[in-house]
Amino acid sequence: MKEVLVLTTGGTIASTKTENGLAPGLAAEVLVSYFERRPGVNLSVENVMSKDSTNMQPEDWVEIAERIQAHHQAYDAFIVTHGTDTMGYSAAALSYLLYGFDKPVVLTGSQVPLGMAETDAVRNLHDSLTFASQTDLQGVYLVFNGLVMAGTRAVKTKSKSYDAFESINYPYIASVSEGNMVPLYQPEPETPVLTPSINLDTKVFVLKAFPGLTVDIFDYLAANMHGVIIESFGNGGLPFERRNIIPGVEKLTAAGIPVIITTQILEEGQDIYLYEVGKRVADAGGITAGDMNTEAIVAKLMWVLGQTRQLETVRTLMQTPIAHDLDFV
Predict the structure, then answer these.
(1) Active site residue: 8, 81, 84, 263, which one?
(2) In 135-245, where does DSSP find H-type helix?
(3) What residues make up the domain containing 282?
């Protein structure tokens, strides 16, 4: 008998109509009743929180991770029901917080609440149970619309459609339908590089580059943040004419604050040395993030900074593949 624990956190999947719009309100015991019962699988349920995932914070990631760790011995697999808006962040965060976890942890949710016509929730619940109870893989995954994604690679790309999530720059792990799972990709095993830790440093800022970005923002960042992520243009470029951003990167780096350079382009990663506008950023101390997505970079940087603020160690760890988060070249 496989023991599977369902942890509920709210989200659209558990939402009901209120005078202020949809809001989480479905009891955990009601939500779990929608799962299809399977021979050889025993389902238990526990409510962790009940919130719209827009309100999900890093402290909530820690609470979910601690709850999973507390039940490690009693269960063979875990399913976390979650709102879709920040589920990509939570999936990535749990991938780091549960680094080295030796059982499958599956996140799922829905675009339409349970109990409503045309809901996708029932299918996603069934598919998540299929994967959780049949897989031999360990670690954190996201199951949505019949596809299984690595937790560090799942990004919400649509606001209304059922196929709301995509696996960015990484193959889908499996497809799931009507109780059957078809493996699509076997992740390569990773050599552990850190002792598992549940500490996070939330003093992280994401800055999206745009034409006209003021250089004054770097004074605030230097005084208040422990890590900065810049969503650059194209392959990693930032402007150095008129509003020259390069001295801002140099200032933060000189202060021992890691500056992670990613791209606003969702797919294919970056080649920061391809153009002068990127090489200048790298020469100023910018730490390129390969083909990682922003959700994973945010969670990983918080996790790494929670263990060390030594700049070169942060650089090394951010550029080291962890939980299949990057293919760094």
Answers:
(1) 84
(2) 217-224
(3) 204-318
Confidence class for position 275, pLDDT limits 50, 70, 90: confident
Buried b (16+ CB within 10 A) or exposed e, 10-26: bbbbbbeeeeeeebbeb
The count of domains in the chain is: 2
Together in a domain, 38 and 169: yes
Q: Looking at the structure, do residues 64 and 110 belong to the same domain, yes or no?
A: yes
Q: Which of 329, 276, 302 is nearest to 95 (CA)?
A: 302
Claim to verify: residue 216 and residue 173 sit in the same structural domain: no
Look up the pTM and report it. Answer: 0.96
Instruction: For residue 246, give both structure tokens.
Output: 């390069």
Does 316 show up as a binding residue in the annotation?
no
Active site residue 84: yes
Give me the catalytic one of 8, 9, 12, 81: 12
Token pair belonging to 193: 């590089």
Q: What is the pLDDT of residues 225-260, one digit of tens each?
A: 999 999 999 999 999 999 999 999 999 999 999 999
CATH classification of the domain holding 308: 3.40.50.40
Task: Return the structure tokens found at 260.
Answer: 């992670």
Report whether 53 belongs to an annotated binding site.
yes
Residue 74 near residue 3, CB atoms below 8 Å: yes
Within-domain flag for 247: yes
Among 120, 154, 183, the domain-final residue is 183
> What helix, strand, coil percent values describe the chain, rounded to 5?
30, 25, 45
3-state DSSP assignment of residue 47: strand
Q: Are residues 211 and 151 in the same domain?
A: no
Which of 43, 234, 9 is CA-nearest to residue 129?
A: 43
Partner residues linked to 315 by β-bridges:
none
- Both 172 and 296 in a single domain? no
Q: How far apart are CA 126 and CA 132, in angstroms?
A: 10
Same domain? 125 vs 231: no
Quote the tokens at residue 262. 């990613």
pLDDT for the residue 190: 84
Mark whether 54 is an active-site residue: no
Specify if 75 maps to a domain: yes
Q: Considering only CA atoms, which of 85, 264, 242 is closest in space to residue 168?
A: 264
